[in-house]
User: Fold these one by one.
Assistant:
Number 1:
Amino acid sequence: MSLPRKLMIDGEQTVETTRTHVKRLFLPFVVLLVVCVAAGFLIAQIGDKGDGKAGWVIVAIAAVLVVWGSLIPFLSWYLWTYTLTNKRIVEQKGILTRTGRVIPLSRINDVAYEKNLNDRILGCGTLIIHDASEQAGLELDDIPRVEAFHRTVTNLVFERHESQRNDESV
């Protein structure tokens, strides 16, 4: 899911789009598994007893738990994207209400990354971007292949700063 063309500036091109690492879906997957197994077990225990309403109550409760514990976290993960263009970094998130943050590459003055042991094993990390504003830096958590993304951002920032220096000297 890339940045829509209607949100792009003239001459802007998408360099890379990413979302958080799939490890964020581990707990929702466990919730899905536990709810389905528990619901299946309870329905099997009830069997043909009663008029069948208890089975439908279990299915309804399981459906609510699956939506709340698995589907909503999945949609939240899927719709939370980081897009790097040749002019800016755009963070977009939200299911019903979309929010975003934009940092122009020309305002970035520091790019760093952090990786703990789990991140190193799973091949992800946190990218921290500080810009020339009073807002806190943008932390892109659990970015897959964080070193490559860091390198790409850093190269684009250097190119942007270099072109600004060349424009000022002319």
Number 2:
Amino acid sequence: MGPITIGAVAAHFGRDLERSLEKVLGIVEAAARDGVDLLVLPHASLGGYIGDLRDPDLTELPPPIHLDGPELTAVRSAAGPMTVCLGLTEDAGAGRRHNTAVCLTGNGILGVHRKVHQPAGEARAFAPGDRFAACDTPVGRVGMLIDYDKTFPESARTLALDGAHVLAMLSAWPASVTDRASRLPADRQSRLFDLYDAARAAENQVVVASANQTGVMGSLRFLGQAKVVGPGGETLATTRSKGGMATVSMDVDAEIARARRVLDHLTERRVDTYRSGLDVTTPGSHDPTGGVLT
């Protein structure tokens, strides 16, 4: 496929849906002018996030959005040929909401991921998703995760086994709510956020584009730290704790092939030795070498 430019965004998006949409459109349009091929925005970039993880106020939840509604139609129009991943609160009908990530271009929605793993009291506000699946895009096969999902190695491994070469990690990841540090770089969650990004990339030998919210929402103070990580776990570009876009131009397929030339983690697994509760493969799941795992 050749080199592509990947951009991962750190920015604040609040509850005002009209303002957050305007901000998303501005970022998408600027990225398109700058030649970005894959743009990853934070989770909850359309309409913001809840303000308290432990005890969310159910009377003040983020505005629910229909996937075929005017907001994503506007983003698709701005995206054109660029692949864009962004997060929102999805209206699932009957009063149910999902934390949802959408991958799209001007031609339509290419993939949808609904957050599976729910921390603390989040389950009071949102219904969980139930699957991980990669999607085909103009920049190759992409898998999406939403913040807490990346804590679990099985999430990223499932997407890598489904052929994803890029993992788009969309987060509204806050500083620690129980042991907050005076400086964000020293916060325990800041360290874990970076650790998970590097580990998920290195253990699967894929590229990670990690976006995150900044600023404050209710009692939550978001970390930023958007970055692009190579298949060896090396950080190629980062915003640190500030807002901005981490941008890298790279030949994803070539870099992954180079990383897997001697040690290929996915094909060298010993599934026969793993206890069934730890094995993320299922009969008929995709083998990244082109076969089917049985």
Number 3:
Amino acid sequence: MQETDIGTIPGWQPLMLSLDLPSATVSGAQIGEQKLAVWRDSKGQVHVSDDRCPHRGMRLSLGFVREDMLACLYHGWRFDEGGHCRVIPAHPDIRPASTICVPVFPAREHAGLIWTRVDGADTGDPPETEWNLPETEHVTPVRTIMINVPLATVMTQLGGASGTCVRISAAARKGPPLSLLIVARPAGHARTQLHLLLEGKAPQTLCKQAAFWAMDFRDATEREYAGDGSDA
């Protein structure tokens, strides 16, 4: 899988934890060169589009959700789930042309994560099949963490392969071993986005220990990578 921020990264990619995107909010993300606006409507449905308003190029991820449409911060143009412009506040009586739209991408939620793909390929297998993920009810999302190390190095440390979920049993700072599920993807040049989950319905005490593990893993991996003098 590609390690830099150049080009298009294939397949389903995890963007963020579902719990980090409340209803009627929008957030930004990026896969390869593709910048994304990720938003959730009032019904809880997630949508993903290009992060550029066709009017003046403003980042849509800086905007807001109004009447279950994504609204640009600059002039308030609103786009529906299909990317079509439905409202131009400066001209409320004019129906926007069908050519005014933003590209949209498939969006799924599974295992407490929001997924999309920007490679333009047929969606084929869902993310849970592609990444070998368990059923949603069998996991507890913990946190997302950024590691300033290439994905290949992170996966070597974890003993897994890029593009698939890694299952490990890890020692906690205190308490029983942690049954971790790790989903990681490249997040730019020599940078990895790591999503941490726990198998089963885990109490808050275990989630806290898993979060400590993630920070310890990040710090140790970054130190080792810097000590090697490796160049991504």
